[in-house]
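Structure tokens
________________
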Amino acid sequence: VEAVHLIAEGKAPRIPQPKEGATYEGIQKKENAEISWDQPAAALHNWIRGHDKVPGAWATIDGQVVTFYGSSLLDTSVPAGQELAIKGASRPGLVTKNGLVVFGNDGKMVLVRNLQFEDGKMIPASKYFSADETTALELTEEEKKMAEDIR
């Protein structure tokens, strides 16, 4: 009760918190979230997972900043996939049916499920090479009639 009264009266002591020993980490910025590839797979996974969703761990692929989301450690044999060069990585990633497999410097693997491009477009990592393909929507006669009725 005494502390509350001191605060209300504006007489409470003000002791600045020392910076030494503080555990608070400031707000992470996107420019500080670039992935350093010279690490074991567990560290890569923790970096990606730790920056998931904001600000998002990122790397440069084909000259474009690509943000990685949804990582998990992969403890299987190397899956089949299409190679993808990642700037700074000692080994290319693999675009597989389950996502993008990246390698730590210990040879172990991390599976990344989603990728986001600079324009904000997010895709499943497994669709990286088919991201530009678009298919036209074909309506049946019944659907065309329904569309006209709705209009």
Residues 93 and 102 are 5 Å apart (CA to CA). The chain has a mean pLDDT of 89. The radius of gyration is 24 Å. The helical segments are 2-8, 41-50, 141-150.
